[in-house]
Amino acid sequence: MLHIGLLIPLDNPDIDRETGFARSAGSIPIAVDDIRRDHFLDDYNFTFHVMHDECDEAKAAGYAVELITEKKVHAILGPTCSAAAISAGLVASFYNVPIIFWGMVTASVLSEKERFPTASNVVTDSLELAKAFAEVMKAYKWDRFAFIYMISSRGKCKFLRDDLNTVLDHVENSDLTNTYSKRLDNSSGSYVRQVLDAARDKARIFAVCFDVDDDRRNFFLEVNAMKMDSVDFVYIMLDTRAYGFGQRVLKVEAMDKTSVQGVAPFWIDQSDKPDGKDQDALKAARRALSLDFDPTTTAGDVAGFQLRLVKKIEGWPFYYKLPENQNMTASVYARYLYDAMYLYAVELNRTLAKDTNLIRNGSAIAKNYADFPGASGEVMFNSRGLRDPLIILKALNDSDYPVKYASVRYNKNMNATFYPDYSDDRSTIWKTRGGYRPLAVPVCGFDGTRCPVDPMKSPLVIAGIIAGILLFIFAVLSVIYVIWAKKKEEERLNELWKIPYRELQKHEPKKTGSQSSRSLQSGVLSISTKLTIETQSESEYFALYYHDREPVVAAKHHVRIALSRNEHREMRKLRALDHSNVNKFLGFSVDAPIYMSIWKYCSRGSLQDIFQRESITMDSFFMYSLMRDILHGLSYIHKSFLEYHGNLTSDTCLVDDRWQVKISDYGLHRVRMAERLPAKKLLWTAPELLRDDTIPGTKAGDVYSFAIICSEIMSRKPAYDLDTRAESDEEIIYLVKRGGSLLCRPTITNIMDFNPAFIHLIRDCWSESIKERPAVDQIIKLMKSIVPGSNVNLMDHVFRMLESYADSLEQEVEVRTKELESEKKKSDLLLYRMMPKQIAEKLKMGASVEPESFESVTVFFSDVVSFTTLASRCTPLQVVDLLNRLYTTFDQIIDEHDVYKVETIGDGYLCVSGLPHRNGDRHIKEIADMSLGFITSLRTFRIPHIPSETVQIRVGVHTGSVVAGVVGLTMPRYCLFGDTVNTASRMESNSKPNQIHLSAEANRAIQRFPEYSTESRGDVIIKGKGVMETFWLTGKTGAAPLRPALVTD
């Protein structure tokens, strides 16, 4: 049985029509029928306990306590007013009992789940309505409004006022201003007119809120009377009842005639004596917008539902007798009571499915909400458990019928967004106003005195003429300014390429021996292939500087001519050239002692520098890549404004740190033409240019120079290799210039590494006939066909070479590593034989081995009986062989026990158990077993060269404390110190052949192991110790007897 408490008003006339018991409680049996239909809580019956709180806060709190403590209710439905709901909700939260609100409960504070964890609400709070209002204002670009409201005992408008202020305080709504706010004490005509008269001086957009429909109708009647129903005014009615432009029907007869979905238009007077002013109220209502919840419902006919619920109260579970002849209608919020009851069934059903013990756990039940089709519309909840509002904006159409024109929806963060249902507002929502959208501030202001002046009557025409004249003057001045600005811009751009000599900082060259003076960047090389600026010195044609902390190369021009505007323009264009195979021109130093063009520094020098380095290995692909880079740089220059290089040599082909060739020393043709170059620098010049020195250069001449450079790259020797030729450079120039059938050209060597077609291509490039020389782009295409894969990056090729070398090096390292590991294992094995493994590991890691004290260990001493006599019968080699065979036998036995062999001195043998690895009390057992093993092994041990002789040993054992540590650096030893060692030695020296002599301490230690047998030897005088009682170890259970008879002293 489920006991349900119901807090609902009965005798409060102010709210009887909204949530009165007689007009609302009939929803309960309808909801229960639907709950049974949908098979919720099939195993439970319902008992209802009704308390009439009359929307009083004190009564609501007291009745809530009574329902929970005395009636033991499982849930409470109500109260129906916000103030009462807050007090009852706090009580329910204290007792952790579920409480479901309905009716006029719109206070946003009830949405705080931290304060009201057991509460659910089927009514959306007024905070969301306030957010929707702000979105409507922003959608229609209204930035100010007046708020007029009237508060009754229902309290709806009071909480809406608070929530509206909260929304206005948000940053995103900072542009919205409430210019006038007034609470109406009553709806009498004179009073309302006084308020409206004050409001229209401050606003044209009004937000209005009324708890009572009659008050709303009276307000609009006064709007009409004040002539404030023109197209300039907008009245936004804020409500949460989903009635919009409607009002609750007071009589059943009125419902059939005027109602739409169970409501009647609010401008209709439903009193017994109508005032006849319905049309006046309607006229004002046409200037209104309704912002309310969506009344759409899947519960069927609302009017029929309301008629049924009124009659249902007379049956189960209330059996309430309705007054006769009163034609009572359902309350405004009766549908929400249905939703509250149905929601409780949904939440409880979902909760019990998880845990039946949570039947009265309010906080757990409140979390199990779910969407369902309710009597008030689709009941949907957001992630916070609050009813998801769908707020709609309505206006009256031409037929005075309310039409939905927009909606306000909310995302998961409860941020509101305005969604219009129209594309043209002039023909829809503002159609009844002639397509005019009202303004928040009238054009002429609120008092009508700020209307704009007629343009024809203003001095604008005169101002326009003056403006035209000024515009003409401005245009002339603008042209002058543009010319001046262009000149200034040219001067500014000229400043970019002009590099003051004072900004060039000399470097201090290192003393590196003789220097090459024929390259931009030649110098003595280090082991690496990069050239640093510090390793090079100044030459006749080039100097090295720092500019802006970056190394640069200055090409010297031994001529001084006046630079014209054409040279200035050329300098600006040269700075703009940018290509991966063209060296960057940085500027020109005009004020230097001699003209200098400044270029970017390339760290690997020129191609001539590279040819001089015997340490660099260049395969055919490497050479192809250098040639390809030169071609790409030439192609870019030929397509630029320069059209040709004119000074292409292996000196002007520089190589950067990525092995990329960059062509330098291009342009500046007028300056270069004024210079006189030595014959050595003309070896790359085409014959036709040698014959006519007035031509600075041609594209065909660059192709000829490229062929000469290719011969250098292939042979890795300077052009024409003058060191091996009989002709001088002047004679070479003469022969090239002369031409003839026998042309003077460089000798191409190392041709075996190259495709023969490529050799023919080079010879075509240095052909005497200009027409036979191919163009640069044609050479690039031919090289791609001759050299497959020539597009591969040179750095990738170099990296592959390095990877190949790295692979072979890795294999070599792997072999060496294996050998090293093998030797390491041998050295480790030797070290482990010298001292305990734990100590050896510490020494290997470089850690110091501190001396360590051991409280209880057993020390073993033994020596060979009559070893001196036995040794006298053997040669030294035989003695060594004897001891080796004997100790090898002993070592094999030691390996079977937890015993550490400390050392052997001659025929003496020292062992210990219990260090460095502590083994508890087992050290005496390990020594005993080892001792027995030693003596047993001697029964079968024979001396090869004296077969008749046997070997006997004396054994001494003592248990006590010792200190152990590593001693020495050259031959470190792990040594034992302490009286225990001396005592064990005395036990051995006082022992008998093939006997195991125990001290009293060793005997006590072995007594813990009953499998060993000992016998007392009696008191014995021990040197340095005095009289001691000692013992013989006679055997071990299950082992062979140590001796046939006891030994007596």
Using the coordinates above, name the CATH class of the largest domain.
Answer: Mainly Alpha
Radius of gyration: 56 Å
Q: How many domains make up the 3D coordinates?
A: 4
Strand order of the largest sheet: 7-6-8-9-12-15-16-17
**Percent of sequence in beta strands:** 15-25%
Please name the CATH topology of the largest domain: Transferase(Phosphotransferase), domain 1
Alpha-carbon distance between the termini?
Answer: 103 Å
Structural class: alpha/beta
Number of strands: 32
Helix content: 25-40%
Low-confidence stretches: 256-260, 512-528, 1043-1049
Averaged pLDDT: 86
In CATH terms, the superfamily of the largest domain is: Transferase(Phosphotransferase) domain 1
Backbone shape = flat
Shape-level CATH architecture of the largest domain: Orthogonal Bundle
Count of helix runs: 31
* Biggest sheet record: 8 strands, mixed
Keywords: Cell membrane, cGMP biosynthesis, Glycoprotein, Lyase, Membrane, Nucleotide-binding, Receptor, Signal, Transmembrane, Transmembrane helix
Enzyme class: lyase
Family: Belongs to the adenylyl cyclase class-4/guanylyl cyclase family.
Protein name: Guanylate cyclase
